[in-house]
Every structure is written in C-alpha cells, then in structure tokens.
Write a structure and sequence with these properties.
Pfam families: Glyco_hydro_57. This is Glyco_hydro_57 domain-containing protein. The structure is a single chain. This protein is globular. By secondary structure, the chain is an alpha/beta fold. A hairpin with a 5-residue loop joins β6 (about 190) and β7 (about 195-200). Strands 1, 2, 3, 8 and 9 form a five-stranded parallel beta sheet that branches. A four-stranded mixed beta sheet has the order 4-5-7-6, with helices on both faces. The chain has helices at about 30-35, 40-70, 80-90, 90-100, 115-120, 120-140, 155-165, 175-180, 200-210, 225-230, 255-270, 280-285, 310, 315-335, 335-345, 350, 360-370, 380-400, 405-415, and strands spanning about 5-10, 75, 105-110, 145, 170-175, 190, 195-200, 235-245, 275. It has two domains: about 5-285, Alpha-Beta Barrel (7-stranded beta/alpha barrel), CATH 3.20.110; about 310-415, no CATH class. It starts with a strand and ends with a helix.
Length: about 425
C-alpha cells in the first residue's frame, strides 16, 4: 500500500486575445503589435482577481503547511504567469520566492507559455524548455530537475526531447489508455534516462473537481477520509496533480477547501503516509520492472485525456491551422520579437477557450466557464471569427515586412 504522497500543483494564467480583432499594419513594430493582439486590461483584471481569491491566501496556506507542518510540495509555474505577476501583482512573486525557499518545496518547470510549440517545432521546444529551466532558476534560485509540459502533454517525441535535455523526471496523466494495464503508483522507465511519474486521476479529481459536488457520494470530503483512500491505494506512492487555482478560485474559500488542506498533513501522518516531492519519489523508488513507453499519440490531463479537448471541433482546427501560419511567417521573417509574439499566439488557452464550440456536456461547460464574459456578446460564431482575424491580421502584417537576412537566420537559430 502507498506510503508516500506527492502533491503537484501548477500555476498558470493565459495571455488572452483582444476581441474584436484590431487592425495591424506592416509598419507596426512587434511592441506596437502586442497591445493590439492581447487584451492587457482584461489580463490585468483576471490576474488581479485570481491573486486575491487564490494566489495570496493559498500561498500563505502552503507556506504555513510547509514551514510548520512538514508538508512537502512540488510547484509548477509557467513563465506566462511570471510575466503577468511581475506587472500586476509583484507581491505574489515575492511570496512565491518565500515558499520556494523552503527546503520541502520543489520548483517544477513547465512549457514557458503553456503553448503548442511541441506540435510545430520540436527543436525550438527543446530550446524553450532549456530557456525555461535557466530563467526559473535565475528568478527563484532553485534548480529544475523535474518537468511538466503543457497540460501534461506527453508523447514519444516529447519524452525524447526532454530526456535529451537531461531532466530527471517528467509528469504525465495516468489515464487507462496511457497506463495500458499498469497502476499509476510506480516510477516508470520511459525508455531513456528520464523517469515518468503518473498523476492518479481519480484521487486528484476527488479534490480538483468533485470537492464541491453535492451530488457526489463522497461529499463532503474530509481530510481523514482522503488520507485513508491514499493509504489504501496499492503501489509505492500516489501523485496527485491540481491546478493551483483549485484553492480559492475553482473551490471558494467558503467551500472548506483551505480547512481540508490544513487538516491533511496530520490525517496523512495518522494513516502512515508521508508527503514527498516529485524528485524525492524518483530517488526513493526504483523504476517498475514493466517499462512505460510514452504514447505515440499525445496524452494530456485535459478532457478525456487526449488532444481532442484542444483539437476536437472545426473551430479549434481552424485556429490551430492559423497558429501554424502565424508561427511560420514569424520564423521566416527572422525578427526574434515577432517570433516571441507568435509563441504567445501558440498558447493552448486560445484553443481551450473555444472547446465549447458545437459541443455540450461537462467539458464544454468548463471551457465556457473560462471564456471571458466580454466575448459572449459577439456570439459563438463571432468569437471564433474574431479569434481567426487576430491570426490573419498578424500574418498579414508580418508577411508585409522585410525579412531579416543573415543576421535574422542567426537570430532564429539562437533565439527563443
């Protein structure tokens, strides 16, 4: 039975697009294009709200639990969030630094912009993941040895790309189609030096999604009950993965989610379970005898666990094609600042926010929940058309600019 629990929480905020789309011209610099592409007023408003409801109180809670109650925690942070916090909530960056300074808290690196870059350019994906590792280490003073990607995206080439970079471990979602008969409670050999750790879907979602569901037969979930569920799980360890916003935003403070977490360390100890960081789990437990080759087709922790949450309807497919055009046009131009804008335009969130198009059910409801209220007056088709226009305007403006020559080629090879 499991004696170790690894808690992984990931922090991310998207850089939302400006709708209706603004007109761009070839004469605009990348810095002039940015506020026309992205609605920074909206992003500031959302960031400020989430910082108040979730980041500040949850960081205080985790600091208390780690400093005084022995909780060990792995924390993933996107560079997209770091940029926004530095602009609009710098005190949260300070609090993050204070939490990460504690010996029991591990920094996990995620794809910097939470993007779909691995689908378009695996070599630049490698460079960006290396860039992320270096920049997070400089920003927070902690080395990154275990990594996430975007929404736990994992496949054969992503695994190989990360393994070549020397990461010690990576996380993936422990869906049945990924595990193929294996339990997600072992450390796995993925075919290289890098180990794989699988999120326990059911035990994660008991807190991440079902905690406030009054129709769930486990409601209300109490810390002692949850601790015994973990202790009774066969295997070496359990890894649970949650959005950081679970605490205070997805589940409001009045739901009892903070009290649940504050009682969890003592409940785990009573059940004979200790918390570990992800790297500690890798160090403590040998790889299972049965290796786990990563899937050929991409797995994620979104929706039903495959890429259909992001590419499952005609609107998403349309925008994804435009992402290709925007990225390739910027790369051919050679201006690193335009390439950076194209990387922001590759954020998975731009596909997440239209998952509801032509769909119904819980997944569509989640997507609609995150879609900005300000967009809905455009109508369903209007939202999709205006998102498409953002990319079309970018491609038109970049294609109309003179490309950089030799220096540009060097910049593309060496740049972000």
């Amino acid at each position: 039975m499991a004696q170790d629990l690894a808690i992984y929480v990931v922090m991310h905020q998207p850089r939302r697009l400006r709708l209706p789309a603004a007109t761009l011209t070839p004469g605009m610099s990348a810095r002039e294009m940015a506020p026309a592409l992205f609605d920074e007023e909206m992003n500031a408003r959302y960031l400020t709200k989430v910082a108040e409801t979730s980041y500040r109180p949850a960081l205080a809670m985790f600091h208390e639990l780690a400093a005084e109650r022995g909780l060990r925690l792995s924390l993933g942070i996107s560079w997209s969030l770091v940029v926004q916090l530095e602009r609009w909530a710098p005190d949260v960056i300070t609090r993050l630094g204070e939490l990460l300074a504690l010996p029991g808290v591990e920094l996990v690196g995620v794809e910097p912009y939470h993007s779909f870059l691995s689908y378009l350019d695996i070599k630049r994906f490698q460079r960006r993941m290396s860039w992320m590792r270096d920049h997070l280490a400089k920003r927070f003073g902690r080395q990154v040895t275990v990594t996430d990607t975007t929404e736990m995206m994992m496949n054969r080439e992503i695994y190989l790309a990360l393994d070549q970079l020397g990461f010690q471990g990576a996380v993936l979602d422990g869906r049945p189609q990924v595990m193929r008969g294996r339990e997600p409670t072992r450390v796995f050999d993925g075919g290289g030096q890098m180990r794989l750790l699988a999120r326990h879907v059911a035990l994660s979602d008991d807190v991440g999604y079902r905690f406030t569901d009054r129709n769930w037969d486990g409601f209300p979930l109490l810390a002692p009950t949850y601790a015994h569920w973990i202790a009774d799980t066969p295997g070496d360890f359990v890894m649970v993965g949650w959005d950081f916003e679970t605490f205070g935003e997805h589940h409001r403070r009045e739901s009892g989610i903070f009290e649940f977490m504050r009682h969890l360390p003592e409940s785990l100890a009573a059940a004979g379970v200790r918390t570990r960081t992800l790297s500690e789990v890798i160090a403590r437990h040998p790889a299972a005898e049965d290796p786990l080759p990563p899937p050929v087709e991409t797995a994620t922790w979104a929706g039903i666990g495959d890429i259909s949450f992001f590419l499952g309807n005609p609107a998403q497919e349309r925008v994804f094609r435009l992402m290709h055009h925007a990225y390739h046009t910027a790369v051919l131009n050679g201006d690193p600042e335009l390439v950076d804008l194209a990387l922001w335009l590759l954020q998975s969130d731009h596909l997440h926010l239209i998952q509801w198009y032509g769909r119904f059910g819980p997944e569509a409801e989640v997507s609609a929940y995150f879609t900005p209220d300000e967009w809905w007056p455009l109508g369903n088709q209007g939202i999709v058309n205006e998102i498409a226009r953002v990319y079309e305007q970018f491609v038109g403006a970049v294609a109309g600019r003179p490309a950089r020559r030799a220096a540009g080629r060097h910049a593309v090879m060496a740049g972000t």
